[in-house]
Amino acid sequence: MTARPALVDTNILCYALDADEPEKRTVAAELLARCFRSEIPLAVSVQNLAEFSVVMLEKVKNPVPDTVVTRFVRNIESFDGWTVIGYDAKTIMDAAAIRKKYSLHFWDALLAATMKQHTITTIYTEDAHFCKISGITVINPFTKG
After folding, report:
1. Which one of 82, 106, 129, 130 is most buried, counting C-beta atoms within 10 A?
2. Residue 133 and residue 101: Cα distance in Å, rounded?
3. What is the reported pTM?
4. pLDDT tens digit string along 106-139?
């Protein structure tokens, strides 16, 4: 795969396993499956994987077993079609500036800074506030058209 991957936000990862949101689960699971079928390249930040784990283990109405969460993360980490990106101290400082400039929560600013560090310009998310950040294209997979 030669195309730059789009980043998949935590909410999309969570919907892929969320039994309480069947319509969103279908859409999210299909997006992830396209990557596992090598149709599109996708990326996640280690931050996304950590947030996903916390939400699915502790925050959803019906928590997912830790073995399922661990297998999900392992499958992403080990598959060549996924790019797992991280951040460093400079990224955190850049996130502080992005947070202030765009009036974002720090964790969203950190994700944006991490994307910029890795030259990823597209994010799959349902969070519209990423649209405020110059240089980032937002794709909401749940909207029609």
Report:
1. 130
2. 9
3. 0.93
4. 999 999 999 999 999 999 999 999 999 999 999 9
Reduce the DSSP state of residue 57 to 3 states and report it.
Answer: helix
E strands in the chain: 6-8, 42-45, 82-85, 122-124, 137-139
pLDDT at 76: 97
CA angle 62, 17, 29 (to 5 degrees): 160
Where along the chain do its domains lie? Answer: 6-86+121-127+134-139
Bridge partners of residue 43, in order along the sequence: 7, 83
C-beta separation of 75 from 118 below 8 A = no
Q: Quick check: 32 and 75 in contact, CB under 8 A?
A: no
Least Cα distance to 127 among 4, 27, 8 occurs for 8
71-96: per-residue pLDDT in tens? 999 999 999 999 999 999 999 999 99
